[in-house]
Design brief:
Radius of gyration: 19 Å
Number of helices: 8
Strand content: 25-35%
Number of domains: 2
Helix content: 25-40%
Largest sheet: 8 strands, antiparallel
Order of helices and strands: HEHEHEHEHHEEEEEEEEEEHEHEEEEE
Structural class: alpha+beta
Mean pLDDT: 95
Strand order of the largest sheet: 14-13-10-6-5-18-19-20
Length: 318
């Protein structure tokens, strides 16, 4: 069996908990048909009621699929969405979950990423993610520094962390694959300091020159670092002041993920921290804006209430 089929098998068995006889719907747009066929072939091999639906790619992330696809999603037990444009935040996905479907979104995934990151032990990744989530849940004060120059503090008091485990075995569950992070919405207005993005940035890709962001009272007030910093600022400014708010603190927990410039994988890399600007209302924050941009920080040292969680990019929790 080639690696692509092995990855599809791991997703169906370990992540989705697929059982013989269940209906498995693979929703794919034309650019991702090869990957969709791999999931379909493995779902058939596992003796499910496998279906593959191909539709024309949407113009942007979050645009609804055709109505016939949306209706099919509601009728399935398991829905896999390896699409070039994300369906994660569509009404079609939400309606499928409401009907009890277990849904995994794989927006922009490549064959190389699938063969590498989806062969992992998601039991171990889940355990690691939940341990970090528990520390976030109990935490009040975060201190984050890095070898690249990051030096920032923020409050997470009263906020609840989320563990992105990749285990979507209960009816109505939803997540992205590859998985592997724990994240939280910092309290608005509390972040103070400097963030140096030296890994990758949503909308920019891997950075050739670090992007330095000055944060005052939870808001990005200055971007510096050449053309990539200018591009980031222009992306943020399309959506006004709210898009400048510190929205998320995330810790990568996937030991097979690596920095590629694709945020789906970048934010999962074990030993990195990412800070996002923009929307966070879907995971406990108060900022509602159609922008959420994640920046990856390399070799970070992260402390929660004085306890070291990461030290120069090494996860040090038990």
């Amino acid at each position: 069996m080639d690696k692509l089929l092995q990855a599809a098998e791991n997703v169906l068995k370990s992540c989705m908990g697929v059982k013989q006889g269940e209906s498995v719907l693979v929703v794919v747009d034309t650019p991702q048909l090869e990957l969709g066929r791999a999931f379909f072939a493995m779902a058939r091999e596992l003796k499910t009621e496998a279906q593959l639906v191909e539709f024309l790619p949407r113009d942007n992330h979050g645009v609804e699929p055709p109505q016939a696809v949306a209706m099919a999603m509601q009728a399935a037990d398991v829905v896999l969405m390896p699409t070039s444009k994300s369906l994660s935040h569509t009404q079609a996905r939400k309606d499928a979950n409401a009907k009890g479907a277990r849904v995994a979104s794989l927006p922009g995934i490549t064959r190389e990423m699938m063969e590498r990151t989806l062969l992992g032990n998601y039991g171990e990744i889940a355990e690691r993610s939940r341990k970090v989530q528990e520390l976030l849940n109990k935490g009040k004060r975060v201190e984050l520094t890095s070898e690249g120059g990051t030096e920032i503090e923020m409050s997470i008091e009263g906020r609840t962390g989320v563990a992105d485990t990749g285990q979507l075995t209960e009816p109505g569950t939803f997540g992205n694959l590859p998985a592997g992070e724990a994240y939280i919405a910092p309290v608005e207005g509390t972040a103070q300091g400097t963030v140096v993005i030296d890994g990758a940035m949503s909308g920019v890709g891997t950075v050739s020159q670090p992007i330095t962001i000055k944060i005052e009272n939870g808001v990005a007030v200055q971007f510096s670092g050449g053309e990539e910093a200018e591009k980031l600022e222009s992306l943020v400014d399309k959506h006004g002041e709210k898009a400048r708010h510190v929205a998320e603190l995330g810790i990568g927990t996937n030991d097979l993920a690596k920095l590629t410039g694709l945020v789906l994988e970048d934010e999962k890399v074990l030993g990195t921290v990412h800070l996002a600007l923009g929307d966070n209302h879907t995971f406990g924050g108060n900022i509602v804006v159609p922008s959420h941009l994640d920046g990856m920080i390399l070799k970070p040292t992260l402390k929660i209430d004085g306890q070291v969680i990461l030290e120069k990019g090494i996860l040090v929790i038990d």
